[in-house]
Every structure is written in C-alpha cells, then in structure tokens.
Amino acid sequence: MFGAALSVAFVMFLGNISDSGLSDLMIRRPLVMSTIVGLLLGNLQKGIVMGASLEVIFLGMSGIGGAMPSDYMTGSIFGTAFAILNHQGTSVALSLAIPISLLAVFVNQLVIFIRGLLVSKFNDLADKDNIKGIEYLHYASIFFGPIIYGIIGFLGIFLGNSSISLLVHSIPNFFMEGLTVLGKILPALGIALLINMIHEKGNMLYLLLGFLLASYLKLPLIAIALFGVILAVIIATTDRQILNNKNLITDTNFQNKESNSNLLEEDFFNEQ
C-alpha cells in the first residue's frame, strides 16, 4: 500500500503543479489524471475507462473567477485509485469521485487563502528591494499547494483505503446496482451541463446531427467525432473566404474613393 500511496501522491503533486506552476497544461483533467493513476497502479485500461467516464461528468463544470464548484482533479484521482485498489468497477469510481471532489473544494480554498496571506510579505520585501527574497517566496508559494496535495494523496490512500474497502464491501447488492444505474446517468448530466453553457440555436443543429448519426446510422463515437472535425474545417474555411472577400470589397471601395477624390482635385486645379 505504501507504493500505491506514493504513486497517488505523485499524481496529486503533478496535477496541482501543472495548474499553479506550469500555466495549466490541462493535464489535471480527469481523463489524464485517471489514466496516469491506472498506469501507476497496474491497470491502465480501467484507468482510461474511468477517466473517460469522469471526464464526461465534469465536462460542464467550470469555475468562474476564483470560485470552484468541484475539485474534479482530486475526485478523479481518489475515485479511480480506490476503485482499482478494491477491484471495483467504474460505478464505484464515479460514486466516490463526486463527493470527494466536493469535499476537496475546501482544501483548494484553504490553499488559496494561505497564499493570499503572503501578499503583505511580498509588499514588505518589495519595499526593502529584496529581489532574492521575492523570488524565494514566489517559488515557495508555487510549490506549497502541490506539496499539500501530495501529502493529502499519500495519507488518503495509506490511511483511508482500508476504510473505503470496508465501506465498499459492506454495500448491499441492491444499492450497488443503484450506483451502477447512477453511474450511467451521471455522464448524461455532464453533457446536459455542457449544453446549457454553449446553448445557441445554431449549435443545436449539430447536436441533432450527432444524435441522428448515432441513433439511426449506428455510427461509433470516433466516426461521429471525425465527421465533426471535417465539418468544422469546412465551416472555418468558408468563413475565412467570406471574411477575405469582405476585406477585398472594403479595400476596393476605399481605393475607388481615393481615386475619385484625386480626380476631383485635379479637375478643380485645372479649372483654376
């Protein structure tokens, strides 16, 4: 269990520092985090499947400003790790990931609050022209959050896996079947949240097109995604041609106006 806890601690550290120190490379998304957890815990296939399912659920959740509705990174890592370590399926990972992601918001807010306390210290160092001190404090603030997340990841697996194992194995079958059904509903909820964010009359046609391709032609998701890419390229190319034509017409009209203005000036001086 020590090795598994150390692996989860590394993934927690990596996911958090990608946001605070590497300009957010988007590797903290559930699909990437769960895949890495699955790889390190010896079950890559299950990690990818759980990551894809969690990605769909959290797809429509995005923070506004400093607000974070749920810490999907922490929820995905712990949900995937607990499910793999206890030999459970995707439904257990989904059921664990969501409450953990909501609880982890408090950790995120605590880290942000402590970082905010450093502002006065930065001002003091700036007043004293202590550039080295500012650099050291800046690096300390970058690594503070990832280290805290790494410690939580290690302790959560090392001390909490036995409790989660007892909890999972004590769940009755009918309740587990309910979690399985819930696990199939939650991705639809994630898609609904995403649609709510990007809802426009024009976009709904593409949604309907994808639905028809999947329902009536029975095309797999990869084929529908490739059709979507081709459609996006065609629309982008057409929009660019229209924009170029508008710019060409504007330039031509401007040149014609300049030419007419020059002719009027020449006529005026010739008459003089």
TrEMBL record:
InterPro entries: GatZ_KbaZ_carbometab, PTS_IIC_man. One of its GO terms (biological process) is phosphoenolpyruvate-dependent sugar phosphotransferase system. Keywords: Cell membrane, Membrane, Phosphotransferase system, Sugar transport, Transmembrane, Transmembrane helix, Transport. It is a multi-pass membrane protein. It is found in: Cell membrane. PROSITE patterns: PTS_EIIC_TYPE_4. The chain crosses the membrane at residues 47-65, 96-118, 139-159, 179-198, 205-236. Signal peptide: none annotated. GO terms for cellular component: plasma membrane. PANTHER family: N-ACETYLGALACTOSAMINE PERMEASE II COMPONENT-RELATED, N-ACETYLGALACTOSAMINE PERMEASE IIC COMPONENT 1. This is PTS mannose/fructose/sorbose/N-acetylgalactosamine transporter subunit IIC. It comes from Xylocopilactobacillus apis.
